[in-house]
Each structure stands twice: as structure tokens, then as C-alpha cells.
Amino acid sequence: MDYRNPSVSFFSILTIIFILCSIVIIPQISAVEYPINVWPKPTTFLWPNPIAILLAGNFTISAPNHRYLTPAVNRYLRQVLTEHHLPLVNPPLNLTSASQLNTLTVIVADVTSPLTHGVNESYTITIPYSGSTNAILTAETVWGAMRGLETFSQLVYSNPSRVASGLYISDVPLFVHRGIMLDTSRNYYGVNDLLRLIKAMSMNKLNVFHWHITDSHSFPIVLPSEPELAGKGAYGESMRYTVADVKNVVEFGMEYGVRVVPEIDMPAHTGSWAEAYPEIVTCANMFWWPAESQWPDRLASEPGTGQLNPLHPKTYQVVKNVVHDVATMFRDELYHAGADEVVPNCWKTDPSIQTFLSKNGTLSQILEIFVNTTLPYILSLNRTVVYWEDVLLDANIQVSPSILPPENVILQTWNNGPNNTKKIVDSGYRVIVSSSDYYYLDCGHGDFIGNNSKYNQPPGSPQDDGGSWCGPFKTWQTIYNYDITYGLNEAESKLVLGGEVALWSEQADSTVMDPRIWPRASAMGEALWSGNRDEMGNSRYAEATDRLNEWRYRMVTRGIYAEPIQPLWCVKNPGMCNTVH
């Protein structure tokens, strides 16, 4: 669904008429010059005479009654009346002597549209100079209304509460898929951490929480049909996600306009399954890189071995139970089935696979057996399947495109930057971009191998990337400047659904989650919402610095512990922390 050029509704016409009647001349003012800004930057922001108006003490938000919009309205009403945000740099805004603003009226054209991939998130906001007229928020769907409510909340500041007035915003995202992937297998995150993540995502207009739930290290989700997987595969009883926990996360996501997409990675990354079903997992609990062997001879790409055996009949009995339960617990139409990093030697340790190979079979054929058996079942549950790019592009083990129908399969890229994105769209597939060169948030924190010889070097030795396989650290500027459609023509670009930053958790847990993710995910959020270039086509990361500083500070005051991007002195002294070179 493409809604980047939405049809003009009756309410939009009314809004435009109001603006034209209120504003005679609209100068070309860049949003960066405005004393108050919104993150992510709206696609259209007209504020010809910046001024503020007080919110009335009995200010209200009027909106259609809706299961998820109503809680959002109540939440934002409390926020604008009680937040009393004080910006780092006090906005030089005159307070109008006009009457106070009494009401924000929310008008939704279609209150029935579900929260699905591609749902219309566009909205407009009109805030008058005079409080005698209501502010108006129009949206095609309740999910667009939620995005508009977030924008309105960022326009409110000070004590007593005041709001930017005499402005018009029309906003719609460039990309429909804007997400964060979090790995909860390598280290555990509590439910409250996941809820806080979703809350912060909504603030940044990100709409997909890609939950990488399981891996070789632990199986933390309790499944009714296969309780032993978590019973034996989780780190402990307190490190499990129950059915009630999942329902809580999914429902919380709905109230914040964030979809929750589950990933149960397979057939690789399944060592934790062996605690309950050792017979269906090859090379489980073996040392990952045998002594005196070369990298191609490893059993896994990091400690934590184990891959499902596609030739064992019981594998599919367990897999189908897992898929059925997960699809029942998560309502989203996307189901992420993993399929990355299938390591040849792990499968080769199994006698049945050795026999298959001795009869001129190949490892790619074994993967095709697995995909051919599991993909139709997932599709029968009315899901679109997301795989990591490896299933098609891996150099050693991959499947034929003929068994991956593009209308039912989306590929997520993580290697080789824009080159792999190009390969995927050239093959006719829709793609989600998570390039490790730009979007991996765990990179640059070293290596977690206990006796890595890279750290036992004499002083003066080159440190390279500090042992991090994907180093260096991905700065917010690196993330902001990445063009996920680089090198693609217009037709190819339409197959790029959007992107996800990813936090793999070898060296992360709830204690560092917020600063690892924020505000770097905010940088991606703006790039995918309204772009990373100005009206002249120039990169705008430099002017985004001051705005991101302010936005990061506001997130912190809202309970999201985002890391700083500059000394506070830089914010207090605009332009002094730039370079002339």
C-alpha cells in the first residue's frame, strides 16, 4: 500500500482553506529555523509567524471513541497538561494575548482500519493563532491520529503549558516499515523493558518491534504446545515470557501504534531446542570452533552451536507446534522465520546428513527440504514470511528462488550494504534493510570471546576495530546519512519497504538497552520518515544535530535514558561545536 500521495479528503480541504484564510504570505522558512521543532521532522511544516498560545486549564482532546485511540488520547492529554517540558534552549516565542487554546479536535476518516503493514499513517495539524478556534488534527486512520498526537505533544512546552500556534503540519512517512530488532535470547530483557522500548518507538514514530525471541543461547518464550522448550531452554524460571506476557506486549504495542513481529530463528541458531529435543538438533553443545581448524571448519559463527535437522521427521512435528503457537500469540501478518547463518559443518556432524551427502545430495538441498516443508505451513496461517537474506544469497547454502514466491516472502538484508539490497530487489523481492555496516547498534563494543588473542598484543599494535567483527561503532550520523535505496532506480526503490536498526545482545541487556538504542534509532526514524536531505537535496545531518540534542533531552525527561551526543555546552552555544573544515 502506497500512501505517500494520499487523496485529499474533505477535512484536508477545510484545513487548507483555514490556512489560506489565516496566512496571506508564506515565506520559505526551513524548519530548523523554527524555535520549536518536531522529531522526526515533518514533511511539511508551515509556521510563517512563530508565536505561542497558552493551553487552557480545562484543555481537552476530542476524538472518536476507539479501543486503542481512546487510551492514546487520554495518555497525551495527561502529558500535555503535566509534562511542563523546559527546552535546553528557551524558545524565543512571544506569547499571544489571544484567548487560550481549549480543544484539539481529532477527525479520523476511517476508524476501522487495522494496524497492519502499510497502514496509512498520514495526518495534518492546524493550530490557530487564536484560542477561540479549536486546533484540528485530521488523519485517515487512528494510527495516523496517534502520530499526530505525538507531534502535538512535542509542540507543547513550559509551565504553564503553552503550544506553538499559527502553524500547519502535513505529514506522511517515506517508508512504511520503520523498526527496531531486539535479541532477547543471548541476554534476557524484562517485560517492562520491552514496554519502555515500545513507548520510545512510538515517540519516534517507529512502527515495528521485531522481536528476535529465540536463538541457540536460550528459548525464553513459553509455548502451550511445547512447554518443555522454555522449561528446559530458558535461562531460568524468571527469564521466560509467558502467554500473558506476550499478550501484554502485543496489546501495549497496539495502544502505541507499534506492531510486534516475532522471529523464531531456524533451522540454524537453535541450540536451545536441544535441551528439550536433542534428537532433532545437530552439533548441539559442541565447541563452536574446533582446535587447529580454520574458520570455514567452524560449527557456528559464534559460541552457541546447534541447527535443526531437516532430515529428522520429528523436527517438523515440533516446528509446526512452535509456528502455530507463535502465530496464535502474535496477531501481525508478518512472521519472521530466520534462516540465517546455516553453517555447513554443523549439519555434517549428523550421520543421517552424512548419508544423504554420500548419495550426491547437497546441503542446499537439505535447506530446500526444510523451507519446502515449513514455508507452506506458515503461509497456511495467513502470514507473509520474512527471512534473512542468507536463505537466497549465502555463498554455501541457499535455496532456489523458485521455492520463495515473492508475493509471500520478504527478505531482510544485513550483509554487504547496498550491494545485497540491489541483489534482492533485482530478484523481485521486497526488502527490509538492516545493513550491519550502518544499522547494527551492537557494533564497536569489542568481542565477547574470553581468550581472544587480539587483546593480547604489545603496546603500539594496531587496534583495528577493537575485536568487533562489525566495528567501528555506528554513530548517529552514520545511521542518519545512510540512504537505504542507494544505487536503485525508481522501480527498484519501491521494493524497499524500509529499515530496522538491530541490537544483538551478546554484550547488552536491560541495563544498557536505552543508551545503546537511543538516540541512534531516532536518527534512523527521521531518515525513514521524512528523509535525510533538505529541500535542495543536501544532507541535513549537520542541522539535525541541535534538533537531536533537544529531542534526546526530552526523551530523557520522559524516562528514556538516551545517551548524549554532545556536551551540554554545545547546545547552550549553538554553532560553536561545528568545524570550519
TrEMBL record:
Offer an example of a GO molecular function term for this protein.
beta-N-acetylhexosaminidase activity
What's the Enzyme Commission number for this chain? 3.2.1.52
Which ranges carry the Beta-hexosaminidase eukaryotic type N-terminal domain?
38-155
Query: Which ranges does the record mark as transmembrane?
Result: none
Q: Which residues constitute the catalytic centre? A: 341
Q: What is the lineage of its organism?
A: Eukaryota, Viridiplantae, Streptophyta, Embryophyta, Tracheophyta
Instruction: Name the source's superkingdom.
Output: Eukaryota
Name of the protein in question: Beta-hexosaminidase
Question: What does the similarity note say?
Answer: Belongs to the glycosyl hydrolase 20 family.
Organism listed in the record: Abeliophyllum distichum
Keyword annotations from UniProtKB, A to Z? Glycoprotein, Glycosidase, Hydrolase, Signal
Which Gene3D superfamilies does the UniProt record give?
Chitobiase/beta-hexosaminidase domain 2-like, Glycosidases
Catalytic reactions of this protein: Hydrolysis of terminal non-reducing N-acetyl-D-hexosamine residues in N-acetyl-beta-D-hexosaminides
Keyword field contains Endoplasmic reticulum: no
Q: InterPro entries, from UniProt?
A: Beta_hexosaminidase_sua/sub (IPR025705), GH (IPR017853), Glyco_hydro_20_cat (IPR015883), Hex-like_dom2 (IPR029018), HEX_eukaryotic_N (IPR029019)
**A Pfam family this protein belongs to?**
Glycohydro_20b2
